[in-house]
Specification:
single chain; alpha/beta; TIM Barrel; nine-stranded parallel sheet; three-stranded antiparallel sheet; 13 helices; 18 strands
Length: 389
């Protein structure tokens, strides 16, 4: 017997031995007609319309057909979430593509500026509207992004696309302003140890230092995004208390940040952790529309965490083409949530992203060639054989 779940396109197989009406029970020959027969690009049931089973007739409707083409690539028309789930999910999300900055900063191979410009072009072609471009940190600390000025000078901004950059201090802001940047991001840590290792100063001092950076940026008419790292745990300090993560995040918002991205830097969070953290922010009076989420896939939880955040009302997600990324200062940090994996899931849930999953997957495969390794994104690998670049 073959049954098809019409909503999810699942095929269920059940095998049984059915003696005919006129035969005594006997050993069953090994040869039997196949339950499914291949018909061009689809599977059809290859059983008669009416089958007799111990003096009882089972009426069969027309065979169900499952199109193989519908299973690959992802097709929005397959998504039929229940009404209660559909009502709980946002209709659209914004993806902040972080591969050019957070992704490349963790790679051993340093890409030439020309390759970075091509990456930015491909990401814009894929439909991205926010692409974090580079970081104005010390070239000695992050040599992978030492060409920040040259990159921004040569970049030809696409209409409708934002190109934020990361700045660690006032000096970094001055460098960014000199390149005509219109949007910046600052970053702090919810934990003490990571702040000292990543920023070279205690957490409280780092937050105080950002006061001048944000004020100057606002005076120049810039949009400011805040990053908060280690919101769930720190490899040196251990679990981050929710109250601490909420307090530090609120202080960044109070400085004047337009948006706060909450980062699971070492990827230890779970769906339950996400709900607890967002409940903490709500209790502190912070609306979820001021928050974004930044997940790493160290323990394979990034997509599950993203779904939990979606159900909590989050509509801004950081993601990285190919799933590249991590922190040069936290070696246990796995790659970022892969853009194409997130887009694939959202399409299945009927959530618009504006991003072409196949274009991103193709970019990821190209990027893997530039970096000399296969990237971890699942969807790019799955689609690779069907659409090689």
């Amino acid at each position: 017997m073959v049954a098809v779940d019409a909503l999810q396109h699942l095929v269920h197989f059940s095998l049984g031995v059915v003696p005919s009406l006129d035969e005594e029970a006997r050993d069953v020959p090994q040869h039997r007609e196949p339950a499914l027969a291949l018909r061009r690009d689809r599977l059809e049931t290859a059983v008669p319309e009416v089958r007799r089973e111990i003096r009882r007739t089972i009426e069969r409707s027309a065979p169900h057909v499952v199109s193989l083409g519908a299973l690959h690539p992802c097709d929005d028309t397959r998504a039929v979430p229940t009404e209660s789930l559909r009502e709980a999910l946002p209709k659209r999300i914004t993806i902040v593509e972080v591969a050019p900055r957070d992704g490349l900063q963790a790679e051993e191979r340093i890409l030439p500026t020309e390759a970075k410009l091509h990456l930015l072009e491909r990401l814009a072609n894929a439909g991205h509207t926010v692409i974090e471009t580079t970081s104005f940190v010390s070239p000695a600390a992050v040599p992978q992004l030492a060409d920040a000025e040259e990159l921004m000078r040569r970049l030809r901004p696409r209409r409708g696309v934002r190109y934020p950059v990361l700045v660690p201090n006032e000096k970094g802001l001055e460098r960014a302003l000199g390149c005509g940047v219109r949007e910046i991001a600052i970053f702090a840590s919810a934990s003490e140890s990571y702040s000292r290792k990543n920023l070279g100063r205690p957490r409280e001092e780092a937050i105080d230092d950002y006061r001048k950076v944000v004020r100057r940026a606002k005076d120049e008419g810039l949009r400011v995004r805040g990053y908060l790292s280690m919101v769930f745990a720190d490899p040196w300090d251990g679990p981050t208390p929710t109250g601490v993560a909420v307090d530090v995040g609120r202080r960044l918002l109070d400085l004047g940040c337009d948006e706060l991205s909450l980062g699971d830097t070492i990827g230890v969070g779970t769906a339950g952790s996400v709900v607890t953290l967002l409940d903490g922010y709500r209790a502190a009076g912070v609306r979820v529309d001021r928050l974004g989420m930044h997940f790493h896939d160290t323990y394979g939880q990034a997509l599950a965490n993203a779904l939990a955040a979606l159900l909590e009302g989050i509509t801004v997600f950081d993601a990285s083409a190919g799933g590249i990324g991590g922190s040069p200062f936290a070696k246990t940090a796995g790659g970022n949530l892969a853009t194409e994996d997130l887009v694939w899931m959202c399409r299945g849930l009927g959530i618009a992203t504006g991003v072409d999953v196949e274009a991103v997957a193709g970019t990821s495969r190209w990027l893997g060639e530039q970096l000399g390794r296969e990237l971890p994104a699942h969807v790019a690998r799955a689609l690779g054989a069907a659409k090689p670049d």
